[in-house]
Prior knowledge:
By secondary structure, the protein is mainly α.
Amino acid sequence: xxxxxxxxxxxxxxxxxxxxxxxxxxxxxxxxxQRYRDIAVFSHGVTLQIPDIEGLAxxxxxxxKEVPEEVEDTEAAVxxxxxxxxxxxxxxxxx
Length: 95
C-alpha cells in the first residue's frame, strides 16, 4: 500500500482517477480513509492510504473509454463510404 499527500483542491474522484485511472474507484479510497470521509475538497498536506487493487475489473462505461485507433480508422472508412454512396444516389459518381 502506498500513500498520497493531497494538494489544495484535490477531490476523492480526482485522486482516484490519478491513482487508478477511474474516478469510479473513489469508493476504495473512502473505505481505506474513513477518517476523512466528510471532506469533499482537500487542503494541502493530508496523507491518504492508497491500497493496491490489481485485478479489479474496469467498470468505466464504454462511452467514457478512449476509442481504439482501429475503431477510429473503421469510422473514417464508413464515413468515406457514406459520402461515396451520396454521390451515387445523386448521379455524381460516374463522371
